[in-house]
Amino acid sequence: MTESQFLAGRLLLAMPGMGDPRFDHSVIAMITHDESGAFGLGLGHLREGVGLHEILEELDIDPGKAPDAPVHDGGPVEPSRGFILHSRDWQDEASLDAGPLGMVSASLDLLRAIAEGRGPERWLMALGFAGWGPGQLDNEMRHHGWYAADCHPEVIWETRAAGRWQAAWRAEGIDPSLLASETGNA
């Protein structure tokens, strides 16, 4: 695996005191990371007052059997664009392989399948995404802004958004209460 592919399929955790309040306590599911840049979905914060039913209705899709699940704040880029991170038991030509994280899709067919009760077993919806230009995320990693955690399925699928940041650190064997908000230079 090359250095530029290192983060794809991992969870990116914001370090305390990283300096960008938009990413405070963020958990980013890293979908791609290569020489062209990086793309991930925020899974650590919810969009206040927005549920799946509202989005389906805006798209003229009858919510049907879909639960009115919370919608995640996927990131600051294109905040009205929707994405679904989902298990591998559903895919079409629009699905993007996200490695151990599962699949990602922005397909209306997927939203219709969820509403009809024939979608993937596990899924999370996010509005917006986190994106970095070529080399940008690599630079942020060198300046201690982020920590690359393994993909921990239990953190994604079994932990509520508000607890994912702490749960991901703990899954890595790190007590998040002991993390320093500043780093030094030796």
From TrEMBL:
Belongs to the UPF0301 (AlgH) family. Pfam families: DUF179 (PF02622). This is UPF0301 protein WG900_15740. It comes from the Bacteria. HAMAP family: UPF0301. PANTHER family: UNCHARACTERIZED PROTEIN YQGE (PTHR30327), UPF0301 PROTEIN YQGE (PTHR30327:SF1).
